[in-house]
Design a protein that fits this description.
With about 375 residues, the chain is α/β, with parallel strands linked by helices. It has eleven helices and 13 strands. A seven-stranded mixed sheet has the order 1-6-5-4-7-8-9, sandwiched between helices. The protein has a four-stranded antiparallel sheet with strand order 10-13-11-12, covered by helices on one side. Helix 2 crosses helix 3, helix 2 packs antiparallel against helix 4 and helix 10 runs antiparallel to helix 11. It is elongated, with a radius of gyration of 33 Å. The protein starts with 5 loop residues before the first helix and ends in a 17-residue tail after the last strand.
Length: about 375
């Protein structure tokens, strides 16, 4: 077992004290620079319109300095009026100018303030809006899937699960990298930034209410710690983990993982199979790519299939799940199928057909 000592693990956890937070998928919005540019353009347009109106009716205004109003005076009056400064040195004296101030200049002043203050108000309300979305998300989240690690393994695992019908809103990604979580939220998943070996980070991902947990970390020792923490928080969830070294798989099972996939050896076996039989390698690669070609799925036995043998039904049966045992299709102990059995079959994937496997973990010995 290639794991660092307990002291090294503790130091690693201390060094990973990052601010963990939940990031919901963002709606498509314009870039901030473009938004600010539009607001400035609108404000300048309002200012120009006000200057033109005042200058066109300059005979109705009085300047306490020289009595007349020129273009510069009109721009000055429009600026101090729209900004509500109002020094009072230039005032409307005619009835027409005053009516223009009541019905035109005042609405323009309000519009000008809304444009300038709108950006500030939007920033102030964004956090409240985000907290409200987060509260709604937490209250509605049940029986979801938590994926720890959004690298190549994590992405492939999510794509496979979502190909069976799982909605993106039911997937929560946990990763210590903010850039990785930004990529996850851009794909439509909820992300939690933080170290998944810490219980408070997994609690933010609502692990205690999750149905299944996928651990796809880069290090085996991290996977062990995540499995221990996740199993402590959720006794009933199905935990599937990936390890690089096959000798670390037993420790992960002891830590609470229901299934452990050795990524390095699995890839090596697929390479060896492809060398011996390229066609067989293509079939195996097709089977592990969910949603295209041939798919391997788990489903319950239907009433019409009960009492028949595995070879007597339409689907190609690979194994029969009976209780906590997984029996081969040719195992003599299978006999006839029972309604309580589950079948692992190979089916032809079609765009209109999706089979959602049962995610309930099998009973342990």
């Amino acid at each position: 077992m290639k794991l660092p000592g307990h002291d090294a693990i503790a130091r690693q956890a201390d060094e990973h004290l990052v601010t963990h937070r939940v990031k919901l998928p963002k709606k498509l919005v314009e870039r901030p620079i473009r938004q600010v540019g539009k607001r400035l353009a609108m404000a300048l347009l309002v200012l120009v319109v006000t200057v033109v109106l005042v200058y066109a009716d300059r005979d109705g205004y009085h300047d306490s300095a020289d009595g007349s109003v020129d273009l510069l005076d009109a721009a000055y009056y429009a600026t101090v009026t729209l900004s509500t400064t109002g020094y009072g040195d230039i005032t409307p004296v005619s009835d027409g100018a005053r009516l223009t101030n009541i019905f035109v200049i005042t609405p323009l002043r309000v519009l000008f303030l809304i444009i300038l203050v709108g950006t500030t108000l939007e920033v102030l309300t964004e956090r409240t809006r985000e907290e409200w979305r987060l509260s709604r998300w937490r209250s509605a989240l049940r029986d979801h899937t938590v994926v720890v690690g959004f690298g190549t393994k994590g992405r492939s695992a999510i794509q496979t699960v979502c190909a069976t019908g799982l909605k993106k809103q039911q997937v929560v990604v946990v990763d210590p990298s903010a850039k990785v979580i930004d990529a996850a939220t851009a794909d439509g998943y909820v992300g939690v930034v933080g170290d998944a070996t810490r219980s408070e980070v997994l609690k933010r991902a609502e692990v205690h209410r999750a149905r299944q947990i996928i651990i796809a970390t880069q290090r085996d020792d991290t996977a062990v710690l995540v499995a221990l923490t996740a199993r402590q928080l959720n006794r009933g969830a199905k935990i599937v983990a990936a390890v690089r070294e096959e000798e670390n798989a037993p420790l992960l099972r002891q830590s609470g993982a229901d299934a452990v996939i050795t990524s390095a050896s699995a890839a090596g076996r697929l390479l060896g199979l492809s060398v011996l039989s390229p066609a067989a390698g293509m079939v195996m690669e097709d089977l592990i790519q969910q949603g295209s070609g041939l798919d391997i799925v788990e489903r319950p036995v239907i009433r019409a299939e009960a009492g028949r043998g595995p070879r007597e039904i339409d689907d190609l049966v690979v194994s029969v799940v009976r209780g906590h045992r997984v029996l081969g299709y040719d195992d003599p102990s299978v006999g006839t199928l029972q309604l309580t059995d589950r079948l692992i079959t190979i089916v032809r994937a079609t765009p209109g057909t999706r089979v959602t496997p049962d995610t309930k973990p099998l009973p342990q010995d």
